[in-house]
Amino acid sequence: MALRMSRAIAHRTAASRSLHHMLLRTSSFRNARAYTSHRSDPLDKVRNIGIIAHIDAGKTTTTERMLHYAGFTRSIGDVDDGDTVMDYLPAERERGITIQSAAITFGWNNCQLHLIDTPGHVDFTVEVERAMRVLDGAVTILDAVAGVQAQTLTVWRQATRYKIPRIIFVNKMDRDGANWRKCIDDIGSKLETRPLVLQVPESEMARLEGRGLERWVDAVTMERIEFDIEADNTGSTVRRSGIAEDDPMFEKMADARTQLVETLAEIDQQIVDVFLSDAVDGNHLKVPVKDIKDAIRRVTQSSQACPVLLGASFRNVGVQPLLDAVLEYLPSPTKIAQPTMAVVPGQKGKKSTEIVRLDGSQLVAFAFKVIVDAQRGPMVFVRVYSGTLDSRMTLVNGTQGGVKERATKLLQMYADQPEEIPAIHAGHIGVVLGLKMTKTGDTLLHAQHPSLPKSLKAAKKNRSVHTTKSDPVGWQLHGISVPPPVFFCAVEADSPQDERPLADALANLTLEDPSLHVSHDEETGQTLLSGMGELHLEVIQDRMIKDMKINATFGKMRVSYRETAGQSATAQYTYVREIAGKHGKAALRVSVEPIIDPETDDNVIEVNMPDHLVVPGEAAPVHARDDDRELRDTVRTAIHEGITNAAFRGTVLGFPVTRTRITVTDVEYFGEDLSTLSAYRACAGQALAQALGGCSPVLLEPIAKTAIACPEKHVGSVLSDLNGARRGRVISLDDAEEGVGAGKLLVAEMPLSTMVGYSSMLRSLTAGAGSFTMEVVGFGQMTMQQQQSVIKESRGY
Asked: Where on the tree of life does the source sit, at the highest rank (predicted)?
């Protein structure tokens, strides 16, 4: 009885705590909405920023402090307690990691920030990719103990690809082993950028345990910054004061200011001119604060350097200066260095580019994320680049061939809490309801956009229509790169009644997550679910079973291999088919040969068309010269599509074909009534299948680069395991960073198939003290014995 009463009390206490937190959040959201939705800030007061970092560097913890100091929340959410604003999915709170990027809008110092908190795990890299696509700036968070880690490099390269200016925040300065100077060295050597150190600690914070006042030196303003974390235990009070010449910290402050000005002078000529005119006797302290801030802003927004700030988010230290630096140094939508460009499709396959004007009158928006809500349906996150997106507006999806859709409602998102708004203006991020066909990476245009065909603009606005072609129409913004999946598993409904809910759930999940693929194995009749890694598919399975209540059985996690040509082969194929009384005929030759280059994982497709398309038995082309050229281009495109589609399914186990040169020749034409585009697509696909069947195809297996940190006493066991069944190749074995809690850092390459379940094995080998990160770096050829083993495992014989 006592045990039951104890459990009941505990359950009631947890429920009360959850309700209390929900009420606080609801009240806070209401206050925050009053700030954001009823203001019309000029664009120079707007920042679109993201938080990027390696897993467990403190992204969500830092974001929660930002929201609290901005007055968005009354209490600070904690990742360990599962009550954060940004990690709202049950799977996120259960695992203590960010899985899905979350957007939120809040105010700071009379400015409006649209912030996206991104995942740090490599399995969810597509979430980072699509967030990067719409950001104007980013905050990169480093662990002061671990420094620049594997996923830090990945997200940094993603930001570099999109030319996004960044600020670096060295977090966890309160931990034993924190070494911000080593982090500065890593930034220069590994991230290959110029660090601008804006702050230095007055003393090492790890030695200040028990003290209520943490103190820093600001090299820009030459002030002491004090964070009062004892008064209310939240660090909300920040004091700034000048540093007198007789202060023991004056020399340290002078050194920091001198180093900052010298670094700026190496890359910015304007600060050199200011120094020569204002700095008396070469005194770096005489350079005006405003000029230094202007120089930092210039080199940051041109991606020549990155400001570096220090802090300890968990101890509520350093976050307010970080927010100030975001406003001071990262660009507004009007100040981005690279103008947004749109590709304009032209006649006969020609393309041109146009600058998307921020103040343009015609709407141009980009859909970068889709969430399927049980009540609201698809929620499409958009960044508006030109014009204004109004509620009830008719939109044209240029990427989907001119589909017309109506925006029924517009929302401002506060993590998982929406608020209806009347419009989304250029430079802002919001959510659109009512779009049924829009996917991640689509470009949305005003129905009367001048780049659209006249026939499309003349169509009725109150209904969705398709153009006759599926090709893009109108302006097209640069899309999102999605890496191919490397793990897959079979999924099967538990009963016939569960098949429809399973199909709907998979359709919604693939709409939300473009890195998730669903395919059907024709030989086994199985539905295959493919993703970026073990954790990715595990999370998808949990969501389907726990959140969506789908009754389904999931098979064993398996690796997604690739296929390639083992030798050269040629196939001549003539396609003849009658469908619904309509005849189709096409003929061509396909040759395949392997590409011996381990650095590439792509195919090379070459379609050689004859000079003229001549019907057999006739001496002259059917069409005039210009028409014949246009017809040949159209046929070439259809053949290329047929080859590309067929290459997604090889002949060994149905895996995608890669590292293969595919050449099409001897294309025959039988007249426009017989040689339709669909006939050429089908002919090309079947010819490629025949050629691949005769080229002795081989399997390629994905190779993972793995960094393993473990205590020195367990290195022998880990190495023995890697060199044995895992077929690993050790690249380096070095001392781990001081303070990480692991003596050695082992880097190795090994087949991804041997890494299934490695997390559990590593914990067993190292008594729970080991950890690892993994990234697929390419594909390697298998031995014939290994290939036969995989084929037998897949086919069952």
From this structure: Eukaryota
Q: Identify residue 108 by its one-letter amino acid code.
A: W
- Locate 513 and state its tokens: 């997550």
Per-domain residue ranges of the chain = 37-329, 341-477, 487-560, 564-696, 699-795
Amino acid in position 727: R
Which residues make Cβ contacts (< 8 Å) with residue 82, sequence separation at least 6? 93, 94, 96
CATH architecture for residues 699-795? 2-Layer Sandwich (3.30)
Instruction: Count Cβ neighbours within 10 Å for each residue of 60-88 and write b for 16 or more, e otherwise.
Output: bbbbbbbbbbbebbeebbebeebbbbbbb
The answer to whether the CB of 142 falls within 8 A of the CB of 357 is no
Close Cβ partners of 709 (under 8 Å, ≥ 6 residues apart): 736, 740, 742, 744, 745, 746, 770, 771, 772
Look-up: residue for tokens 């080593």? 182
Phi, psi for 569 (deg, rounded to 5): -155, 155
Q: Are 250 and 323 in contact (CB under 8 A)?
A: no
Are 99 and 124 within 8 A, CB to CB? Answer: yes
Number of other CB atoms surrounding residue 220 within 10 Å: 20
Identify the DSSP state of 614: -
Q: Where does 302-356 have alpha helices with state H?
A: 319-329
- CA of residue 52 relative to chain centroid, distance: 10
For the chain, give me the number of helices (H) and strands (E)? 18, 38
Question: Which string of DSSP letters, residue by residue, matches 87-143?
Answer: --SHHHHHHTS--S-EEEEEEETTEEEEEEE---SGGGHHHHHHHHTT-SEEEEEEE
Partners of 142 in the beta sheet? Answer: 170
Rounded distance between C-alpha atoms, residue 61 and residue 139, angstroms: 13
Question: What is the token pair recorded at 561?
Answer: 């291999």
Max distance between CA atoms of the chain, in angstroms, equals: 101
Considering the entire predicted model, what is its pTM? 0.78
Q: Which residues pair with 290 in a beta bridge?
A: none
Answer yes or no: are the C-beta atoms of 636 and 669 closer than 8 Å: no
Residue 41 pLDDT greater than 70, yes or no: no
**Range 341-477: architecture per CATH:** Beta Barrel (2.40)
Average pLDDT, rounded, for the chain: 83
pLDDT digits (tens, 9 = 90+) for 263-316: 999 999 999 988 888 877 778 888 999 999 999 999 999 999 999 999 999 888
Burial label for 677, CB within 10 Å (0-12, 13-18, 19+), is middle
So what's the pLDDT on residue 343? Answer: 87
Supply the DSSP symbol for 656. P
Rg, Å, the chain Cα set: 29
CB 747 within 8 A of CB 732: yes
Give the residue-averaged pLDDT of 635-648.
92
Instruction: Please give the structure tokens belonging to residue 782.
Output: 């298998």
**Helix H or strand E segment including 351:** strand 351-355
In 647-710, where does DSSP find H-type helix? 677-693
Query: Poorest-confidence range of 10-24, 474-488, 729-743?
Result: 10-24
Q: Would you say domain 564-696 falls under CATH 3.30.230.10?
A: yes
Contact 297, 100 (CB under 8 A): no
- Distance from C-alpha of 786 to C-alpha of 797, rounded to nearest angstrom: 15
d(CA 194, CA 307): 9
From first CA to last CA, the distance across the chain in angstroms is 57
Q: Which residues, in sequence order, are bridge partners of residue 592?
A: 569, 662
**Is 487-560 assigned to CATH 3.30.70.870?**
yes
Query: Which single residue is written with the structure tokens 């640069």?
Result: 478
**Do the two domains 341-477 and 564-696 of this chain adopt the same fold?**
no
Buried b (16+ CB within 10 A) or exposed e, 276-290: eeeeeeeebeebeee
> CA 431, CA 429: separation in Å to the nearest integer?
7
C-alpha 621: how far from chain center: 50
Homologous superfamily, domain 37-329 = P-loop containing nucleotide triphosphate hydrolases (3.40.50.300)
